[in-house]
Structure formats: structure tokens, C-alpha cells
Amino acid sequence: MSRAAPQPEQPPGSVLLREIREQPEALSRLLESSGEYAAVARMIRARGIDLVRLVGHGSSDNAASYGVYAFGLLPGLTALRDSISLSVYYGADADLRGSCVIGLSQSGQTPDVVEYVERARGRGAFTIALTNEADSPLAETADAVLPLAAGFEEAIAATKTYTNQVAALALLAGYAADRGDSLVDGINEVTELMADFLPGVERRLSEVAVALAFVGRMFVIGRGPEFATVREISLKLLETCRVAAAPLTATDLAHGPIAALDGLFPVWTIAPDDPLLPAVRDAAARARAAGATLLVSGTGAASIPDGDYYIPVPKPSLSVLAPLVSVVPGQVLAWALAQAKGLDPDRPHGLTKVTLAP
Amino acid sequence: MSRAAPQPEQPPGSVLLREIREQPEALSRLLESSGEYAAVARMIRARGIDLVRLVGHGSSDNAASYGVYAFGLLPGLTALRDSISLSVYYGADADLRGSCVIGLSQSGQTPDVVEYVERARGRGAFTIALTNEADSPLAETADAVLPLAAGFEEAIAATKTYTNQVAALALLAGYAADRGDSLVDGINEVTELMADFLPGVERRLSEVAVALAFVGRMFVIGRGPEFATVREISLKLLETCRVAAAPLTATDLAHGPIAALDGLFPVWTIAPDDPLLPAVRDAAARARAAGATLLVSGTGAASIPDGDYYIPVPKPSLSVLAPLVSVVPGQVLAWALAQAKGLDPDRPHGLTKVTLAP
User: Fold this and answer.
1) What percent of chain A is predicted at pLDDT more than 70?
2) Residue A147 contacts residue A157 (beta carbons within 8 Å)
């Protein structure tokens, strides 16, 4: 999967920005495989699966955070981000009959994800590979393969593979709930919302980035399905902008970390337009009271008072799909802030595309 | 549960330090209730429980991270930190027969933990309250109550309640695996290791703290059972020292965040003397190569080369109990670094002991 680094004549960040902009198209490509998602969901139902185990690292693990909510809200199944260590390094011997395993890896090469899936299959789980690469070790190991269909990703910082993973988990959970058609319509709608939304966000965040160029640390807060967004935005800022961005649930902020805040420590609030809004609004108010600079985005941004910067996000008809749109400002800020800080987000310090380390 | 703030004549941090030192005694108190743990474990076995759902916020959620490994390694049960939001805010309707729920709250008052437990009981789960307060709403709501037995905790930053939660989960998992006596012996041994270890750690970290007084951000890395330690140490530094400390699995460090490192961004590595050591050693080497200042602790510290500061930790006979000892340097550094920075860890900015926010 390793290819040559982008050619020097390309301006810094151009690869990342191109892939951010490509996301609506990548989502449309995913929908071309919806029949395969429907078929795998039928297998999940036929086998009486009652537990979904999600495994991945980095952005894939962030998408897995979303999967917990997609399966919980749509078919009402318990899903968890399972411990790879317990199985692969400690040899713990849980009975996995009745479990479905979804291994998430863009490249299909992540060694301990492949090994986890192999062991889980041996212990009776129904195993699914969700990957961009149908010929990869992960795909060869699993019972079923679902195409991520994001197309080749050149940027080191994942964008379109993350949103396609999120959409893929929503689609599979939707079919498992016998609501697949509604999810297909919903993802189609998101491709339009995203395409309309992107140009304005690029302009707006290029301005905001200049004001944030001094920032060395940040909390990103949210809760529920948007906690995946919180984690993914933090990771983008860490890997491209050298910002120590830490993801926190809105509730955990009040359980200690709020004591670290001051005016040089911004808090980015992802406000959902759903039953968790009051909890997130309360956390944002506490951050403001502690003197933090407040960035506000998400579909419920308009309900958060006293923000310093607002990046409202259009709300999809299916609110479970909101994280597909609300991650976009984080991706765009990673691109814009890197430029404001004089960094090249296409060449982050010390990173390679496929991580083969243990 | 609210009491008067510590009297001004007490030196800064004296309440926190007293409770750090009290931990061996608090663990011994927990063991006086081992019969109750054995009885609840018998109920777990009699009911054929195959899934353990752990819920809590802040330090309690960090202890839950440990519970995932205690139940996975000892009785071989799958345990997860369950989503409170799915149940309490979104009304997701999973079938919880076959599940055991453990609600963790020092005060027994955390509102959404109480509500989660109430709903889970209504949906067929066997519910357990693990709390310091036998008369609390949480204790009244659950099927069974396990005493945390930590004694009244005055400091806002939890220490002895965290270590007693970790030990309580190990004890319950041990009895569920029919190995309760071995866990009792192991925890008894830890009380001695901890008491012997503490004075030297206080001296050593008072020196290290002076060198770290400039630090505004830090990664704390580890994996497996010690990931609970990683999360808890990060939280202590956040709430008492205004350090933006972010917990990362050793593997996730390489998936992006490593790009943020430089010489002013220390990485604290918790090295386990167990099968995960090579993965953690690799992550530490990458952090070092990226120019980070490296703090090394944990029972496997001696196997990590090129550290700037070493705080080796004695290894208990039962390696599953190592996190009880390896969290202590983090608690002590929180105390020492706060003093080096001129902060009072007994009065962190904006925090109260019991968080009643949503």
C-alpha cells in the first residue's frame, strides 16, 4: 500500500483537502455495494447474534465508537469496542458463539486486528472484514467481507475512509434492523448536505484557524454518537497540527479535566440536536465559566450560548447520521490550522500510512 | 456528602497526600468484606451471566477500564464499559437478561449512573452497586450492594476510592473464577508492597516534579489492564496540575498522535512486565525518536531503554494486580507537580467532590 509521497510541486495540504472534498463521492460509491450489506445483515439476523464486537486502531477505532451507537439505536444490539489485547496478547478464552466481529482496517493489514479476527473465528464468532482492500490479509481471514469503497486514500490523515466506515456501520446496522432502505436514502441525503456545506466551511475555518494558530492544547467534547466525532477530530488535530487535543465526554469534562482550563485552552463542543443536548450545553457553560475559548459546532450548535466561534452543521433527516456531517469541520480545521501554523498536513512528522507496529 | 473545605492552616496538598498514604489501609478494609464479594460472585455464577456491563464517570470509569481485563482474565467473561447515553438519554431497549451490571460511584449519587442501573434492572439485568455509601440512591436501586470500604474521602481528586474500586473488581472477578482466596492473598501482598514503596516514590517524584514544572501537556501511554492506570494518571494530572494529559494506548500513539510530539511534550510510559511489553517498548522507542522526554514507570520499567526518568514499580505475585501499584506514582506526581507549579491540589479550580451535573 505504500506509494511515493506527494510530489513537492503540490501545495501543502492539497492531498488532504482533495480527499476531504471527495467524501460525498466516496459515500455514493459505498451505496453501490448496499446489496452486500443487506446480505451480511441477513446472516447476522439468521444467526441470532446478540453481541457485536468492533476492533480497529486509530480512525478505525473512532468509527467503532460510532458503531456502538448505530447498533444500539437501530437494531437494539449491544456493540462494544472489544479488547484486542485480551485475545491476542493474553490468550483470554471467551466463548464467542452468538457474537459477530467486525474488523475495521482501511488497508486490511493491521497485524493484531487480523490476528484478533482469526482467533475470534476459531472461537465461534461470525467475522466480518470492513476494508478498502478485498485482497488483504483481513479480508482473507474473515467469514464475510464488506467493501469500504472509499477508493485509494493518499493522505496520511484518514478522512474519506473514516466517513465511509461510519456510513458502512450505519448501513449494516440499518439492514440488521430491517431499515436498510431508509439508511440508503439517508446517506444519499448526506452526500448532498456535505457537498453544499463544504465550501462555506473551508472559508469560515480558514479565518478561524488564524485566530487559533497559537493553540497548543484543546479539549473536544461531546457525547453519544457524536463521541466518535469528538475522538476523530482530536486525532486529526494531533496528527496534522501538533495540537494536544484530548477527546472527553461532555460529562467527564466536569469530573476533573475542567480544572485544567484557562483562556489559552480552547474547548470545541460538538452539540447534538437530540436528547443529549442539555448535558452538552451544561458542559459548554462550565467550560466558558472556567475561561475557555469556546468553539461550537454540531447540529445543535445554535442552542449553545456564549460561543466564541460557531460552525453550525446541517442536520440530516436521520439524526443517527449526523456524525457523518459533523466531523467535516474538524477535518477542515486540521487542514486550515496546519497551514496557519506553517505545517504540511500531507507530511506529518513521523507517520506512515499503514501502521504495521504491534 | 459535601463537607467544609480543608482548613487553611493545612499546607497545600496535605489532604491529597494523606489519602494517597492511606491506600494500603483502605485496601485492608476492603478485604474485611470479602465474604460479601464471594456471595455476589456466587449469584453471578448461579445466574449464568455471560456479559458484565460497567458504568461510572471519571475515576470510576477508569476503574471500569480495569474491570474489562479483570473479568476477561480471571473468569473469562466479556465485560464492557457500557454506554449510559444509549439507555438513559436515547431509551435504547436492549435485552439485558444474562447481563450483570456494576454501577460504580463513590458517593452513590451520580444521577445518570443511578438511572442506568434502575433501567437495567427493569430490563432483566442482575444489578450491583459498588459504592462507599450503603444508604445512597445507587445502593437502594441495585439488587446487591458491595461496600467499597475506602472510608470517607476528603480530597477532590480520588485516590483511595480508585484503588479500592480496582481491587473490588479484581476480587469480584476472582471469586467469579473460583479463585477468590488467591485474590485475597494477592491484595494483602499489595498492601505491603504499596506501603514499602510509597516513601521512596514521594522523595523521587518531588525531585522529578521540579524538572517537569514547565510542562503543559503530556501523553500517558500503556495498554491492557494498565490502560486504566494510563487513564487515571492522566485525570489526576489534569485535575490537580493543569497539565493537558491525554491517555493513549501504546498502539494508538503510533496511529497519529506521535506527530504532535517534541522535546517539550513528555510521554509517560507505563510498561507492564507481561506479554504486552514489546508493544509498549516499541511505542516508547517511537516517542523517544520523535524527541519526547520519556518518563518510564510500571512493573516492566527496567525493560524500556533510553528513558529520562525512571520510577520502577514492584511487581505483585499476581500480575493482574499490578495496576494497584502502578497508579501510585501518578497520584504522587499529581501532588508533587501541583506544588512545583504553585497550585493547591486540595482546591482544584472549578471542581466539587460530588458531580451532580447531567
Assistant:
1) 95
2) no
Cβ A83–B76 below 8 Å, yes or no? no
B251 contacts chain A (CB < 8 A): yes
pLDDT at residue A357 tops 70: no
Nearest by CB to residue B217, choosing from A57, A217, A350, is: A217
Is B89's CB within 8 Å of A289's CB?
A: no
End-to-end CA gap in chain A:
18
Q: Per-residue pLDDT averaged across A31-56, rounded?
A: 97
Q: Is B320 within 8 Å of chain A by CB? A: no
DSSP state letters, A236-276 = HHHHHH--EEEEEEHHHHHTTGGGG--TTS-EEEE--SSTT
Mean pLDDT value across residues B317-333: 98
CB-based burial, B139-162: b 16+ in 10 Å, e otherwise = bebbbbbbbbbbeebebbbbbbbb
Which of B16, B78, B97, B215 is the mutation pick for testing A, counting most A CBs within 10 A? B78
Q: Determine, for residues A350 and B259 on separate chains, whether the beta-carbon distance falls below 8 Å.
A: yes
User: What's the CATH class of domain B191-340?
Assistant: alpha beta
Cα separation, A243 vs B155, whole angstroms: 31
Q: What is the ipTM of this complex?
A: 0.93
Choose among B89, B259, B348: nearest Cβ to A349.
B259
- What grid cell was written down for A99? 457474537
* pLDDT (mean) for A173-191: 98
The mean per-residue pLDDT over the stretch B192-202 comes to 97
Domain(s) of CATH 3.40.50.10490: residues in chain B = 14-178, 191-340
pLDDT for res A2: 43
B252 or A311, which is more confident: A311
Query: Minimal Cα–Cα distance from B128 to chain A, Å?
Result: 19
- Residue in B72, B217, B290 closest to A83 by CB: B72
Cα Rg, chain A, nearest whole Å: 20
Nearest-by-Cβ selection for B259 from A219, A276, A351: A351
pLDDT at A355: 61
Answer yes or no: is pLDDT of A307 > 70: yes
Give the closest residue to B262 by CA, choosing from A347, A238, A219, A232. Answer: A238
Contact between B73 and A90 (Cβ < 8 Å): yes
Test the A interface: residue of B119, B251, B253, B346 with most A CBs within 10 Å? B251
**Which pLDDT value is given to residue B2?**
43
- Mean pLDDT (chain B) is 93
Q: What is the pLDDT of residues A217-258, one digit of tens each?
A: 999 999 999 999 999 999 999 999 989 899 999 888 887 888
Query: Which residues of chain A does B323 touch, with a Cβ-Cβ cutoff of 8 Å?
Result: none
Q: Which of A30-34, A41-45, B5-9 has the lowest mean pLDDT?
A: B5-9
Asked if B352 reaches chain A (Cβ–Cβ under 8 Å), the answer is no
Distance from CA of B264 to the nearest CA of A (A): 11
Distances A350 to A354, B253, B259 between C-alpha atoms, Å: 12, 11, 6
**Residue ranges matching CATH 3.40.50.10490 in chain A:** 14-187, 191-340
Cβ–Cβ contact B93 with A under 8 A: yes
Q: What is the DSSP letter of B213?
A: T
- In CATH, which superfamily holds the domain spanning A14-187? Glucose-6-phosphate isomerase like protein; domain 1 (3.40.50.10490)
Q: Domain spanning B14-178: which CATH class is it, in words? A: alpha beta
Q: Does B240 touch chain A (CB under 8 A)?
A: yes
Decide if pLDDT at B222 tops 50.
yes
